[in-house]
Amino acid sequence: MQRRGKFDYILLETTGLADPGAVASMFWVDSELGSDIYLDGIVSVVDAKHGLQHLTEEKPEGLINEASRQVALADLIIINKTDLVSEEELNKVRTSVRSINGLVKILETQRSRVDLSNVLDLHAFDSLSGVSLQKKLEHVKTTHAHLDKAIITVTFEVPGNIKEENLNLFIQNLLWEKNVKDKTGCTMDVIRLKGLVSIQGKSHQVIVQGVHELYDLEETSVAWKEGEKRTNRLVLIGRSLDKEIIKEVFIATVREERGNS
Ligand SMILES: Nc1nc2c(ncn2[C@@H]2O[C@H](COP(=O)(O)OP(=O)(O)OP(=O)(O)O)[C@@H](O)[C@H]2O)c(=O)[nH]1
């Protein structure tokens, strides 16, 4: 189909209070629908001067504050107005952002001046990010909450091949059924999920992406090499996440296939 005046790129700015997950879900359409539009990535701006205050703001009834949610969902964070803070203050903002989202790329700016190549074509939601995600996943660490009930990042690795249906079950229990709980009985609340897994019968690494209750599995262009240890690495961003428990649940759900690589 030919059409005049096609858009090259759509940059959607949401209001300061928006939950980017809800907006992103609308554009994150199934590739099988053959849409011309795909979700490239989520960018959040953090004000170096007031960001920390927003990130630590406590909401009634344990609700997640919007700023933390925006950081949790972002693929790229721009910490702006760095000229207004000392290096020490800036470091606190950095640490706070990193403790929420251990996977996000951080840029630091004044007057939000960025090289557009760092902001556009992120390919954060498609299989093209397979190679870069692989590198990132090697360095991501589980973070520790600065505040009680804060959002954190947890990551774990389990070797072996897994069955796609078992992986679906694991993700659906977490995101849909919400029946995975921490030690205190609190439901684990996953806001963002990313990973690279080894699905039985697939020659290439499979990327796992989740935003709120939406998730997708897609084979990447990265092939498992001959003799390479097949493995599954997942990164989850959310609240009440307990790495050991999630890992145990994952292993229990995919157990049948462990050691069959
Ligand atoms: N000193 C300094 N001022 C800045 C910088 N970036 C923007 N400003 C100024 O900050 C003021 C408010 O701008 P922003 O915080 O970007 O406002 P905004 O993005 O419209 O606000 P919200 O979308 O409501 O958060 C304006 O006067 C800008 O000129 C910066 O890096 N340093």
From TrEMBL:
Signal peptide: none annotated. Transmembrane segments: none annotated. Keywords: Chaperone, GTP-binding, Hydrolase, Nucleotide-binding, Zinc. Gene3D superfamilies: CobW-like, C-terminal domain, P-loop containing nucleotide triphosphate hydrolases. It catalyses: GTP + H2O = GDP + phosphate + H(+). Pfam families: cobW, CobW_C. Residues 151-254 form the CobW C-terminal domain. The keyword Glycosyltransferase does not apply. One of its GO terms (cellular component) is cytoplasm. GO terms for molecular function: GTP binding; hydrolase activity. Belongs to the SIMIBI class G3E GTPase family. ZNG1 subfamily. This is COBW domain-containing protein 1. It comes from Geospiza fortis.
